[in-house]
Amino acid sequence: MRILVSIDDTDDLESRGTGELASLIAADIETNGWGKSSFITRHQLLVHPDIPYTSHNSAMCFAAEIREDALDKVIAHASSFLARESAAGSDPGLCVAAIDGLAAPDEIMAFGRRAKESVLTKDEAYAAARRLGVHLSEHGGTGQGVIGALAGAGLRLGGNDGRLKGAIPLGPPGGVVSVADLSRRKDVDAVRTLDGRPLDGNEMVRVGEKVKTVMLEGKAVLLVSAAAAADGPAWQTCPRQQLKRY
Amino acid sequence: MEQMEAGLPEFPCGTEDWLTAARAAALCVAFSPDVEEEQVADEARSCYNCRYRRWSVDSITCCKR
Predict the structure, then answer these.
(1) pLDDT tens, A167-207?
(2) Residue B50 and residue A76: Cα distance in Å, rounded?
(3) Which of A16, A47, A54 lies nearest to residue B57, judging by beta carbons?
(4) Mind spelling out the 3-state secondary structure of A152-170?
(5) pTM more than 0.90
């Protein structure tokens, strides 16, 4: 069965990041033989004076394909892990959603979009989770992280939000690689321009620093922009600043 | 940057003044890089990439001051 695991509000200024905790839970799923985990996405939620957050208000989510009998084990493990490993004073929340049996996929996706635009409450999150039939739980502090956890699952399910955790190792900056070679990589599903145009396999891309992918149409997409230099490849990988809005 | 140097917490240049954020971080003894997934500036040493910055609607705040 396919599930989404989403967590939020696990850190403080000095602790490990929420993304690292998500990575550890994803790895534990595989180590315990429960299933296979996918990449982690970071989802930016609303920054607003009425929302408590440590420094950026983002949720982390990953998908996993697990055995039917492993769902309860994954939930129990992730719950105890967050209670144990989250930073003191944080407000961790956990959402585990079984995608195939989801009662109303549109509703969880809408919740995610709303969390980027408006201030939501824990009551709203729990009510939505009950209607949807997804697991939602808090593991310390105020438990405010349940809002972001549910939103992160909705945004991941929507498939058009967030940056993937980690950089794509394409070698030193300044190198040149073809779109065909990029597309053959396991960590790149597609190569597109910033305005969404797919590129032919024979087009060439100059590699910049810290190359990252974003999630578009459910895929890990490497975005490129027109190259700054007149000579050489027509395209370059997008610098981080251009990916900030994803 | 001047306000940051003077010890006031609010970064006065908004959310995308990359040059100023890099210059301020270069002068800051408290700078510490945030985790990779939370970094947004191309300059590795930038207030925007610091684990002690807190994003607000219009800018960032330095939590070390």
Answers:
(1) 999 999 999 999 999 999 999 999 999 999 999 999 999 99
(2) 34
(3) A47
(4) HHHHHHHCCCCEECCCCCC
(5) yes
Q: B42 touching A, CB under 8 A?
A: yes
Q: Give the gyration radius of chain B's Cα atoms.
A: 10
| Cα distance from N-terminal residue to C-terminal residue, chain A | 28
Cβ contacts of A161 on chain B, cutoff 8 Å: none
What is the ipTM for the molecules in this complex?
0.90
Contact with chain B for residue A104, Cβ under 8 A: no
Mean pLDDT within A93-121: 96
Q: Is B52 part of the contact surface with chain A (CB cutoff 8 Å)?
A: yes
Burial (CB < 10 A; 0-12, 13-18, 19+), residue B25, is: buried
